[in-house]
């Protein structure tokens, strides 16, 4: 339901309202995960804690990091003209509230917004803008809004996932590389074309994107395997294997911090698998601090009698890491060995 609504909203906008109307609007401000929340001051006083708790839920990268940041704006108060042009807007009110009516008057949707609940319209006050509407009943307040907040979170989170994945693949998907890997090595992975790759030995491959500057941002994926496949594979086995590969092949040493380590042993892509997410750190003797998150899978492909180590790590000092983690997880999710 939400995916259909999201796709419908994406198709609205310039195509629907016409090039002339869109041409009069400037580009939106802010990041895709920065949300301007608009509602009456009285409702915000009651609802602010609930809105922050639902929409600013955290994910773990190297520390707890907010998926979204919410900023309140009172309708038509100071800064309204500027903040209403942000890329992500959340408008809460009834159909008779003027800020809701203004948003609806400035856009054209395939179906008119007349009912209660969560709706999304696009390009209202700026281009590339998503305005999420929560339509409350007349006299509705905190209780009614809290009913809809989980749906709002799900919608915005799905939209951000689409954004992060689409942005990663803007350079194009290197399907030729995937075909080459499958033909020559028996596995494939769908990488953006900006990644460089090399084969370090018969069973070891590295894929790296350090644009624009490796001192600012590195995304790297490492694939190796052993055959015959071991009978059992545990967390300690995966971490010890990764440690050996880091010492042998990685450009810099990486110690592993087990603080807040996340472990899953559910099947991955239909294969027996162990997933570890944790933080890597530069050893103290390197003389300069560095670190970042990594995601490692140990997974067995019985048809090949191989067990793979598939590792993705990130170096992004001073940057929010959620978007990059989505991208690395997406790449890992394209891994195939059958």
Notes on the structure:
The structure is a single chain. The chain is an alpha+beta fold and 338 residues long. It folds into 2 domains: 2-168, 2-Layer Sandwich (Chitobiase, domain 2); 172-333, Protein Transport Mog1p, Chain A, CATH 3.40.1000.10. 33% of the residues lie in helices and 28% in strands. The strands form 3 sheets. It has a 7-stranded antiparallel sheet, sandwiched between helices. Strand 11 (255-264) and strand 12 form a beta hairpin. Helix 4 (41-55) crosses helix 7 and helix 7 (142-168) crosses helix 10. Mean pLDDT is 89; it is low at 1-23.
How is this fold's topology laid out?
Layout lengths: L1 H10 L2 H4 L1 H5 L10 E5 L2 H15 L2 E3 L3 E3 L2 E5 L6 H4 L4 E6 L4 H8 L11 E6 L7 E6 L6 H27 L6 H11 L10 E6 L2 E6 L8 E9 L8 H15 L5 E10 L8 E9 L9 E11 L4 E10 L6 H12 L5
Helix pairs in contact: 4-7, 7-10
Low-confidence residue ranges? 1-23
Rg estimate, integer Å: 23 Å
* CATH topology-level name of the largest domain: Chitobiase, domain 2
Helix content: 25-40%
Largest sheet: 7 strands, antiparallel
Give the strand tally: 14
Q: What fraction of residues sit in β-strands?
A: 25-35%
Number of helical runs? 10
Principal-axes geometry comes out as elongated
Instruction: Give, in spatial order, the strands making up the sheet with the most strands.
Output: 8-9-10-14-13-12-11
Average pLDDT for all residues: 89
Please state the second-level CATH architecture of the largest domain.
Answer: 2-Layer Sandwich
* CATH top level class name of the largest domain: Alpha Beta
Structural class: alpha+beta
């Amino acid at each position: 339901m939400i995916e259909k609504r999201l796709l419908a909203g994406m198709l609205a906008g310039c195509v629907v309202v016409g090039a002339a109307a869109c041409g009069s609007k400037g580009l939106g401000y802010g990041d895709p995960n920065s949300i301007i929340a608009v509602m009456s001051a009285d409702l915000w006083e009651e609802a602010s804690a609930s809105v922050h708790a639902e929409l600013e839920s955290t994910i773990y990268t190297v520390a707890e990091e907010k998926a979204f940041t919410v900023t309140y704006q009172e309708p038509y108060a100071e800064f309204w003209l500027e903040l209403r042009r942000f890329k992500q807007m959340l408008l809460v009110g009834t159909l008779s509230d003027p800020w809701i009516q203004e948003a609806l008057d400035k856009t054209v949707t395939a179906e008119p917004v007349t009912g209660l609940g969560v709706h999304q319209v696009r390009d209202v006050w700026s281009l590339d803008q998503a305005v999420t509407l929560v339509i409350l009943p007349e006299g509705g307040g905190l209780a009614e809004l809290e009913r809809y907040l989980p749906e709002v979170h799900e919608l915005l989170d799905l939209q951000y996932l689409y954004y992060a994945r689409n942005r990663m693949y803007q350079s194009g998907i290197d399907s030729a590389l995937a075909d080459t890997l499958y033909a020559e090595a028996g596995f494939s992975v769908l990488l953006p074309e900006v990644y460089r790759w090399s084969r370090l030995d018969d069973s070891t491959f590295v894929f790296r994107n350090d644009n624009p500057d490796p001192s600012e941002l590195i995304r790297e994926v490492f694939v190796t395997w052993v055959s015959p496949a071991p009978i059992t594979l545990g967390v300690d086995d995966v971490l010890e294997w990764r440690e050996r590969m880091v010492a042998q092949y990685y450009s810099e040493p990486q110690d592993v911090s087990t603080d807040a380590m996340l472990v899953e042993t559910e099947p991955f892509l239909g294969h027996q698998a162990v997933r570890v997410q944790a933080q890597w750190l530069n050893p103290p003797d390197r003389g300069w601090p560095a670190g970042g998150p990594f995601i490692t899978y140990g997974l067995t492909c019985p048809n090949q009698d191989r067990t793979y180590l598939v590792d993705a790590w990130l170096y992004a000092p001073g940057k929010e890491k959620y978007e990059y983690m989505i991208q690395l997880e997406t790449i890992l999710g394209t891994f195939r060995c059958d």
